[in-house]
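Work Package 3 (structural annotation) set out to generate three-dimensional models for the target panel prioritized at the project kickoff. During this period the team completed the workflow that converts sequence records into discrete structure tokens, so that structures can be stored uniformly alongside our sequence database. As a representative example, we reproduce one entry of 129 residues exactly as it appears in the project archive.
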Amino acid sequence: MLPDDLRPGLHAYLGGILRDLGGTAVEINSEPDHVHLLFLASRAETLSDVVGQLKTGSNLWLQEQRPELHPFHWQNGYGAFSVSPSAVEDVRDYIRRQREHHRMMTFQDEYRKFLVKHGIEFDERHVWD
């Protein structure tokens, strides 16, 4: 779980990874059990490579911050969705309001609802690994 006091540093670190990969962070926010990143991707990197480097780099950074985080690791999978330019501000606002939003609905329930709403088939056994 992500401690609140490490979240600003984690966000900055994630933004640095994106910058190093030629991308641009637009909005980053985290909760104890997940992170949302809105970013402009580089055309030179695949999405899976970007996500892999974000997860690997931030995992190591978190473990360096606190000894008790040494067993920490991100789940295997991830969700990635494109956003039209006209929706960027709405998505930024959504990302900023995660704490408030998840008081009403868990991340897991929200993600399931999102997948169903957009007709994305999923197997529950493989979503939360």
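DSSP finds six helices and two strands in the chain.
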